[in-house]
Amino acid sequence: MDIRPMRSWIHHSRGTVLRQAGVARHEVGDLHEDMLTRHGFEGRDAHLYRRNEPTAWKRAEGSGNHLDIDGRLLEPSDLTHANGGPLRLFHNPDVSIWVSRRSANMTYSARNADGDELYFVHEGTGAFYTEFGPIPYEPGDYVVMPKGVTYRIRPTGPVNYFLIVETTEELGFADIGPLGRRAPFDPALLYVPSPALDELGDGRTEDGEWPVRIKLQGEYTSAFYDFDPIDAEGWKGDLFPFKINIRDFRPITSDRIHLMPSAHSIFATSTVVVGNLLPRPLEAAPDAEQFPPYHRNMDYDEFMFTHSGTALGLPIAPASVSLTPRGLHHGLPTSVEEELRKNIKPGDRADFEFIFVDTAQSLTPTPEAQAKKREEQIFRVGLGPATITDNDAFEVPDND
């Protein structure tokens, strides 16, 4: 067993503070807890107790502002053209984040020589037809396509929506530490394909050629065949595409303290973390907080995608996309927390399904992403973007 390096256990407290950070915030009266972190939520940190809400800025200017996008308005070329492709939204040297809305079978096969691809299926059903065999997909699936694998997508209908995370470094599972080999998911649940050739004959141009579109250094080139390049009848080894569904991920929870998002990580490289915030019981201990404190992550940009559900009753449109750059405060306004608490009952559960991507290098939005930026007031709640108006009814989802 690998021995983890010992963390710093020498902490100082000055002035008015909580005895246990993140617990019973009412004990500091009208002060607001503010969390300053390094290395996501796993490095050194500090909790400050402020007179004013740190998110209550009069205005924010410049490129480091929070960005919120209605993902339903994004139109990648594969939405209307079978030979089209995904739309890139954000990027840095380590990772690119894309959206695909493929409506018809691909007229080409794809091969990425720049990095691994992680597809999250938001909408649609169909199959990834790969040289290792077909991988059927449905909403909630993560489909991992390692660098160099040849594949094409066959949707069963015109409505499909994929979030794609492309990493230059090999993508692996996040370190789950002392939780064991079967939590938060059993690796035996991974769907691994077996070769299955068929005679559908897609992936061809009108001239009857099979092109393979290869992505290399951000550019595309195509190699053309007189036969289907996906023709393997067998494979062996430890490099292969696979999938797992979010329903097979069992969130680690605590009844007494709110766990920060890093507890819900599933995939990672040395500079990118992908996780999912999924339905779970709300913390129920008398002094437990159901909401994270105000916080500013100093070493990671935080990307969030809404798959389904609400932010503890606050309505969020499916396919909403948000980016909170490092250094920018975010958290649920105190007045909203108070309204939500009035409706929380023992046994209540959160109903959200959010996908997050935290990146060690700053993400740059593309012009296509900037063009779909929402203009209305958005509060970054630490769970996902939520539009809040005076007329909203705050209601925690029923247990049903």
Quick recap of the structure?
The protein has helices spanning 334-343, 367-370; strands at 32-37, 45-50, 67-70, 87-91, 95-100, 109-112, 116-123, 126-130, 133-137, 141-145, 150-155, 161-167, 172-173, 210-216, 219-225, 242-245, 265-268, 272-277, 280-281, 294-297, 301-308, 320-324, 349-350, 353-359, 364-365, 379-380, 385-386.
Q: Could you describe the 3D structure shown?
A:
The protein is mainly beta and 400 residues long. The chain has a domain at 73-192 and 201-246: Jelly Rolls. The protein has 2 helices and 27 strands. It has helices at residues 334-343, 367-370, and strands spanning 32-37, 45-50, 67-70, 87-91, 95-100, 109-112, 116-123, 126-130, 133-137, 141-145, 150-155, 161-167, 172-173, 210-216, 219-225, 242-245, 265-268, 272-277, 280-281, 294-297, 301-308, 320-324, 349-350, 353-359, 364-365, 379-380, 385-386. The protein has a 7-stranded antiparallel β-sheet with strand order 3-22-21-24-18-17-13, with no helix packed on it. The chain has a 7-stranded antiparallel β-sheet with strand order 16-10-7-12-5-4-25. The chain has a 6-stranded mixed β-sheet with strand order 9-8-11-6-14-15, with no helix packed on it. Residues 377-394 have low confidence and may be disordered.
